[in-house]
Amino acid sequence: MFEGSTEEEARGRILEMVGEYHDRFHARPGFERGGRIPYASRVYDHREMANLVDSALTFWLTAGEYAERFELEFAKFLGAGRCALVNSGSSANLLAFMALTSPLLGERAILPGDEVITVAAGFPTTVSPIVQYGAIPVFVDVTIPQYNIDISRLESAASVKTKAVFAAHTLGNPFDIKAVKEFCERRGLWLIEDNCDALGSRYSLDGEEKFTGTFGDIGTSSFYPPHHMTMGEGGAVYTDNPLLGRIVNSMRDWGRDCACPPGRDNLCGSRFSRQMGELPYGYDHKYVYSHFGYNLKATDMQAAVGLAQLEKLPRFIERRRHNFDRLYDNLKGLSGKLILPEACEGSRPSWFGFLVTCLPGVDRSKIISRLESGNIQTRMLFAGNLTKHPCFDGMRRTGKGYRVSGTLENTDRIMNDSFWVGVYPGMDGEMIDYMSEEIAEAVK
Predict the structure, then answer these.
(1) What DSSP character marks residue 125?
(2) Which residues 6+ apart lie within 8 Å of 285 measured at CB?
(3) Which stretch of DSSP H or E encloses residue 422?
(4) Phi and psi for 72 in degrees, rounded to 5?
(5) Residue 236: which CATH number?
(6) CA-to-CA distance for 444 and 431, rounded, in angstroms?
(7) For 108, phi and psi rounded to 5 degrees?
(8) Is 169 a catalytic residue?
(9) Domain C-terminal end among 271, 302, 333
(10) Do 179 and 208 share a domain, yes or no?
(11) In terms of domains, do 64 and 207 share one?
């Protein structure tokens, strides 16, 4: 097939065939009433597949050119100073939190036993790094119908041990960034924005509108297939703080002190001429470790897919908003049965899902059963109340390892009465309308 061809010509032919393959075998079928409506799904075309194959043909199996390009382009899109690509959103949360434990931060470093304010109504990997490190998550309640951290609970949750706030923008709806940021600045606390479900959401602060994830000290994203864009598995950590950026990269890359990317040596020019720790002078800087780190890198093949998705992201964001608005208009007549979601004041959410809470007398299980049997996927608000899960059994028995400030009344209500459906960009108006009709029938 490639006789007489240059490598470049052969590669071009392969990528052309990949496009043909996509168009022949990956075309999306039209929707028919009663067909499956997932809460989320991949939305892609031949460009993602071509990028993936192009990366595979290069056969650079770890992070390389595509990863470097993605980090630069993603940071540029967000308006963030620097970005580190990682292998999942959960790894991004782990890395964001662990960066704040670095001894390079001096007295501001989070130590075992220090407290971090967060919520129980969310995804567990916002909380897991806090517990695993030996810090204390302090849970406060959330609001309904924004489903975000209740800012009126922050002051009473704080103590002399409080070092940070770690909170998510729930299903794309920004929390009250102004209030949370002012609270953190007043007390000298770190702010980590878990932006995994909110990529593309915007918030106005002091007359300037910015993307969520860029207001705090560190932001995180996830690129798992259901999210706003995907590369299969994958995530990102971003910050404007050069020191935090350095710490994040070190901890992502085994904890090493060297900043050379894979396959490159001695970019600093002093690989064998440093005195580090109690090592012999000139010990190879590529094998000097300033942190207890991990290997959380993503591959170039993932980044290649991500770059093609990033080109589509603005369109994805607008489609999510459009689908949310259409669904809201269709369901607003059910306000006597369901509490519909409400955007945070001053925000433009990039909605991940449409979250509703059943009013008294409305049976959530009945609605979910009707929808699921009709091929409409539903989801709970992740853990509901994380402190009720088996992973907390030991801590509940001993009363140690976490703290609840006040009550979690709304969190428990969400656990018992709330669910959500999708608004992902692969949904069209017919799917939204059919889903609306089924929800209306279920609440009768």
Answers:
(1) G
(2) 257, 258, 268, 270, 271, 272, 274, 276
(3) strand 418-422
(4) -70, -45
(5) 3.40.640.10
(6) 21
(7) -85, -10
(8) no
(9) 302
(10) yes
(11) yes
Given the residues 26, 46, 227, 322, select the one marked as catalytic: 227
**How far is it, in rounded angstroms, from Cα 428 to Cα 422?**
11
pLDDT per position as a tens digit, 346-394: 999 999 999 999 999 999 999 999 999 999 999 999 999 999 999 999 9
Q: How wide is the angle at C-alpha 194 spanned by C-alphas 189 and 196, nearest 5°? A: 170
pLDDT at position 262 over 80 = no
End position of a domain, from candidates 302, 334, 359: 302
Instruction: Check whether residue 295 and residue 317 sit in a common domain.
Output: no
Report yes or no: 341 and 144 within 8 Å, Cβ to Cβ.
Answer: no
Left, alpha or beta for 361 (phi > 0: left; psi -120 to 50: alpha)? left
75 and 118 part of one domain:
yes
Non-local (6+) Cβ contacts of 363 within 8 A are none
Contact 184, 361 (CB under 8 A): no
- Look at residue 411 and give its three-state secondary structure: helix
Residue 378: phi, psi to the nearest 5? -125, 160
Q: Are 183 and 191 in contact (CB under 8 A)?
A: no
- For residue 86, the surrounding DSSP H or E stretch is strand 82-86
Whether residue 11 is contained in a domain is answered as: no
What's the pLDDT tens digit per position in 154-183?
A: 999 999 999 999 999 999 999 999 999 999
Q: 262 with 389, same domain?
A: no
Same domain as 376, residue 294: no
Output the 3-class SS for 54-68: HHHHHCCCCCCHHHH
Tokens of 90: 């959960």
Range of the domain at 413: 312-442
Same domain, 349 and 260: no
